[in-house]
Amino acid sequence: METEPNITANGEANNNTTDDVQPPPTEEEQMPSEPIPTAKQEDKYYQDARKYWSRIAPTVDGMLGGFGSISFTDIRGSDQFLKNLFKMKPAPGRGQALDCGAGIGRVSKGLLMAWFDRVDLAEQDGAFCETAGKELEATGKLGTIYNKGLQEFVPEEGKYDLIWSQWVLGHL
């Protein structure tokens, strides 16, 4: 006995009998199978990043990959963002901010210290931390400089009114 083919939703013939029907794949089976990085691979990634940044000059041009000329425009755009943020009800406090991946403190100096009483910095490169300390000390708004990579840094809960990440998240 010959059976007629079943027609699927897209118009294709399906000669499978009900015995051949498979359940739809689970969500897990549909996920692309990308290898999960091992701790060793992650360590190498961050070691390579640390090595890269250790060869970069502690200057605005160095922080912006040779595009130091955009710093003013970059800061101005971020300033507009904060103006809009502080118009919100309720607005965040203006006591303490954390600058993540702070580099030499370009964003802290040009932006965050205008809005906050105290600014802490988290930065993995020691030379950048040293430059930031020298550059920002006279402002009277410099808090703690944490010489630590963001992959290891855990901010104190409830300490900050704002945690700022600019030009750094792509490196995590």
Please describe what this structure looks like.
This protein is an alpha/beta fold. The protein has a domain at 60-171: Rossmann fold, CATH 3.40.50. 35% of the residues lie in helices and 15% in strands. The chain has helices at residues 27-30, 39-54, 60-63, 71-85, 106-115, 126-136; strands at 6-7, 13-14, 96-100, 118-123, 142-147, 162-165. The longest helix is centred in the N-terminal third of the chain and has 16 residues, at 39-54. The chain is globular and about 70 Å long.
SSE layout and pairing:
Elements: E1 6-7, E2 13-14, H1 27-30, H2 39-54, H3 60-63, H4 71-85, E3 96-100, H5 106-115, E4 118-123, H6 126-136, E5 142-147, E6 162-165
Helix pairs in contact: 4-5
What is the mean predicted local confidence, pLDDT? Answer: 84
The first-level CATH class name of one domain: Alpha Beta
Number of DSSP E strands: 6
How much helical structure, as a percent, in the residues? 25-40%
Give the CATH architecture of one domain.
3-Layer(aba) Sandwich
Portion of residues in beta strands equals 5-15%
Compute the separation of the termini in Å: 63 Å
Point out poorly predicted stretches: none
Largest sheet: 4 strands, parallel
Number of helices: 6
Backbone CA Rg: 26 Å
Fourth CATH level, the homologous superfamily of one domain: Vaccinia Virus protein VP39
